[in-house]
Design brief:
With 252 residues, this protein is α/β, with parallel strands linked by helices. The chain contains 8 helices and 9 strands. It has helices at residues 2-24, 51-54, 75-80, 83-88, 117-134, 163-174, 181-196, 224-241, and strands at residues 27-33, 48-49, 63-67, 96-100, 138-142, 178-179, 202-204, 216-218, 222-223. It has a 5-stranded parallel beta sheet with strand order 3-1-4-5-6, with helices on both faces. Strands 2-9 form a two-stranded antiparallel sheet. Strand 4 (96-100), helix 5 (117-134) and strand 5 (138-142) form a beta-alpha-beta unit. Helix 5 (117-134) packs parallel to helix 6 (163-174) and helix 7 runs antiparallel to helix 8.
Length: 252
C-alpha cells in the first residue's frame, strides 16, 4: 500500500508541475504608447478610456493584456524613462507587443518628447521591433488614431503629418504586422458625422457630469463608446493581419 501511495503522490506532483508550467505559458499582450491607449484612473466616475483599457473584453482567457501605455509619452520619453526597459525584461517567446505612438512625438516645443519623424521616431520604432523579436515576442505596429478635427466644410483634416507614414514604412521595411488605425478611425469619425462624432470623445457641457463640472471639449481622447469602437476595429484587423491571433478572440 505504501508503494502505491508513494506512486500516487509522485503522479500528483508531476501533474501539478505540468499545470504550473502551462500557466507560465499564457500569452501576454504588452501595449506601449500614449494616452489614447492607456488605462484611466477612477473608471467608475471618469468617462475617459484608452482603447487598450477596454481591449480585454474582446479577448478570451488564453491571453492577458498588460497595458503599459502612459499618458503624454512619446517614443523618446517612453525609452528615456525606462518604461520600455520594464516591458523588455518581462517579454517571453510568443508574447505580443502592440506599439502605437505619434501624438506626443509631434510636440516640437518639448525636447523631452519631440522626435523627428524620419530619424529619431523611425529609429525608436525599429528599436521596439528588433528588441521585441530578440525575446521571441511578436511586435505589431499601429498608426495613431485620428483627432476629431473637422474643418468648416465638414472635412476631417489630418493632424499627424509624417508620423503615420513612417510607421507604414517601418512595418514594410521590417515585415512587421501592421494595423492602420489612422485610416480605420478616419472612417469611424466620418461615419458618425461632425456632430455625432463628439460622442466618441469627451464633449460635456458645464455641470452635465460631475467629473467635469466646468465642462469638457476634447477631440483627441476617447469616451467609453469611442474606446470600444476603436478596440473593435483593432481586434477585427488583428484577426485578419496577425497569424493565429484569432485564437485569442472571444467567439460570439
Amino acid at each position: 500500500m505504501k508503494i502505491y501511495k508513494i506512486g500516487f503522490l509522485i503522479v500528483l506532483m508531476i501533474f501539478s508541475s505540468f499545470k504550473k508550467e502551462d500557466s507560465k505559458k499564457q500569452i501576454s499582450i504588452y501595449t506601449i504608447g500614449d494616452s489614447t491607449m492607456a488605462d484611466k484612473i477612477n473608471p467608475d466616475e471618469n468617462p475617459e478610456r484608452g482603447w487598450c483599457q477596454v481591449l480585454p473584453q474582446f479577448l478570451n482567457d488564453n491571453v492577458v493584456v498588460k497595458n503599459h501605455a502612459v499618458n503624454g509619452r512619446s517614443t523618446r520619453s517612453f525609452i528615456d524613462e525606462k518604461k520600455w526597459d520594464a516591458v523588455y525584461h518581462q517579454l517571453k517567446k510568443g508574447d505580443y507587443v502592440f506599439i502605437q505612438f505619434g501624438h506626443n512625438d509631434q510636440k516640437e516645443k518639448d525636447p523631452k518628447r519631440y522626435t523627428n519623424p524620419t530619424t529619431a521616431y523611425r529609429n525608436n520604432l525599429i528599436k521596439f521591433v528588433n528588441e521585441s523579436r530578440e525575446k521571441g515576442a511578436i511586435p505589431v505596429l499601429f498608426t495613431s488614431i485620428v483627432r476629431r478635427n473637422f474643418n468648416e466644410e465638414g472635412t476631417l483634416v489630418d493632424t499627424h503629418m509624417m508620423y503615420p507614414f513612417v510607421v507604414r514604412f517601418v512595418a514594410n521595411e521590417l515585415n512587421v504586422p501592421f494595423i492602420d488605425l489612422q485610416y480605420l478611425t478616419e472612417k469611424l469619425e466620418e461615419s458618425y458625422g461632425v456632430k455625432g462624432s463628439k460622442k466618441l470623445h469627451l464633449h460635456y457641457q458645464p455641470n452635465e457630469i460631475s467629473y467635469y463640472p466646468k465642462g469638457k471639449e476634447d477631440n483627441t481622447h476617447l469616451s467609453v463608446l469611442g474606446a470600444t469602437e476603436v478596440a473593435k476595429l483593432a481586434v477585427l484587423e488583428l484577426s485578419k493581419n496577425v497569424k493565429n491571433f484569432s485564437n485569442f478572440i472571444k467567439k460570439d
